[in-house]
Amino acid sequence: MRLQEFFRQNPRFAVAFSGGVDSSYLLYAAKAAGNDVHAYFIKTEFQPQFELDEAKRMAEHLGVSLTVDVFNILNKQSIAENPPDRCYHCKSILLKRLWELASMDGYSVLCDGTNADDDENDRPGMRALREHRVISPLRTCELGKAKIRILSEQAGLFTHDKPAYACLATRIQAGTVIKLELLKKIEHAEMVLFDMGFSDFRIRMMPPGTAKIQVSGRQWDEVAAQRTEILNALTPDFDSVVLDLVVRK
């Protein structure tokens, strides 16, 4: 199926919107095709503020209505306790909330930005998508990440080269209880590195209080050059700061 055919068959639908490359392109393409689309962004403790800011910016750029719902996900024990299948439980809870919001606005179809390259074995949340009847048009129409980036650049979308970004909860090892204070420390640390010019990186929380910096191999020299600044910024929140020497492309 081609994307235009999907749009003809589904002229009106809601979009679970993250502000990332894929869901932004889906919104753009649907809007360009003349579809009635409405974006929904759920702001939990797991999304940094910049993700919400960029989602709002994109929705305004596209002229698409955006509903932002603030949801305290850490109130759910199955999430805060951080079991190995936390992602599934989290996705399931949020999709249920998205359906509630979309249904109140009269939408009977809910879509997301999952693309053809997303590996179901690596994404436990995809089980929740099936269970909650969420459609993934980009995946259905066999559009992978590289193609979506090209199409996004051609469309003039500022997200075309945006690095992939997983939620803050992924920075914490399974089995370690997730607390708001820890999430804020990780978010602050990543914003510090971003402001220093780093891109496509992660800071993992390793017990008992170590921040592990993961960057591509080409950025190792930059970490060394700014070592003092990084330590000064991160050591107030972490007992130690280490660099992951595994090469990351």
List keywords for this structure.
three-stranded mixed β-sheet; 11 helices; 43% helix; four-stranded parallel β-sheet; alpha/beta; 7 strands; globular; Rossmann fold; 249 residues; 2 domains
Structure description:
With 249 residues, the protein is α/β, with parallel strands linked by helices. The protein folds into 2 domains: 152 residues, HUPs (Rossmann fold), CATH 3.40.50.620; 65 residues. Helices cover 43% and strands 14% of the residues. The strands form 2 sheets. The protein has a 4-stranded parallel β-sheet with strand order 3-2-1-4, sandwiched between helices. Helix 2 packs parallel to helix 3 and helix 2 crosses helix 8. The two termini are 32 Å apart. The relative contact order is 0.13.
Shape: globular
The helix count comes to 11
Instruction: Provide the β-strand percentage band.
Output: 5-15%
SSE order: HEHEHEHHEHHHHEEHHE
Q: What is the count of structural domains?
A: 2
CA distance, first residue to last residue: 32 Å
Which stretches are low in confidence, meaning pLDDT under 50 for 5 or more residues running? none
CATH superfamily heading of the largest domain: HUPs
What name does CATH use for the topology of the largest domain? Rossmann fold
The major pleated sheet works out as:
4 strands, parallel
Average pLDDT, to the nearest integer?
A: 94
Strands ordered across the widest β-sheet? 3-2-1-4
Q: Class by helix and strand content?
A: alpha/beta
What integer value in Å does the Rg equal? 19 Å
Question: Helicity level, as a percent range?
Answer: 40-55%
> Under the CATH scheme, which architecture of the largest domain would be assigned?
3-Layer(aba) Sandwich
Q: Could you give the count of β-strands?
A: 7
For the record, the CATH class of the largest domain is Alpha Beta
